[in-house]
Design a protein that fits this description.
By secondary structure, the chain is of the alpha+beta class. The chain is built from four helices and eight strands, in the order βββββββαβααα. Strands 1, 2, 3, 4, 5, 6, 7 and 8 form an eight-stranded antiparallel β-sheet that branches. α2 (131-140) runs antiparallel to α3 (150-172).
């Protein structure tokens, strides 16, 4: 079960933590075993979201998110992870993928910088992968199993995420929305 917890003493920019077994007293979410039924998990999914109200105090927005895949429940070294940090202050992309592993070609190009330290961009603030995308990747690539009907559940969740992202993009760009409506009046329903 994924729960939300409010960071104590944080105001006016309240931060909400969402993750497996998160609570007011436990702000570090636990990893989810990737398994069907009672099978022994081969992988663990570490998921967390830090949410806050937007600048107008009207919509809950993602401040940062993390979805990482690990070979053990408690180990530090993961296989890969997707990160999102709103308005990231260093030169790395807000939304990025980091992959553990070794590659001789990459090592020759970037001596002293392992591949896990590279931040592969994945769509930016609005069009980053959803948690459903990560889960579907794991199932399709045979890294874990999906229950019957998983695809429909993931598709519904992904569609909600995409609509929310589109609405947020529209709120931030009303001039683009107005121009689209002006240029395509036949698409507007009364």
């Amino acid at each position: 079960m994924i729960r939300a917890a409010v960071l104590p003493g944080v105001n006016p920019d309240r931060i909400f933590i969402v993750g497996h077994q998160a609570s007011k007293t436990n702000l570090v979410p636990a990893r989810l075993p990737l398994q069907v039924g009672k099978k022994t998990p081969k992988l663990w999914l570490d998921v967390s979201f830090r949410l806050q109200m937007d600048q107008w105090d009207q919509y809950l927005t993602v401040r940062s998110s993390f979805a990482g895949v690990f070979p053990t429940e408690m180990g530090k070294d993961g296989l890969f992870h997707y990160d999102y940090e709103r308005d990231k202050r260093d030169s790395y992309p807000d939304a990025h993928l980091q992959i553990a592993g070794q590659d001789e070609s990459m090592a020759a190009l970037l001596p002293g910088k392992p591949i896990v330290k590279l931040h592969f961009p994945v769509g930016g603030k609005r069009f980053r992968p959803s948690l459903e995308d990560v889960i579907e990747f794991l199932i399709r690539e045979g890294l874990t199993e999906g229950k019957d009907g998983y695809k429909a559940v993931l598709d519904r969740g992904r569609e909600k995420f995409r609509i929310n992202q589109l609405r947020a993009a529209m709120r931030r760009s009303p001039d683009v929305v107005a121009a689209f409506i002006r240029d395509h009046p036949d698409l507007v329903k009364e």
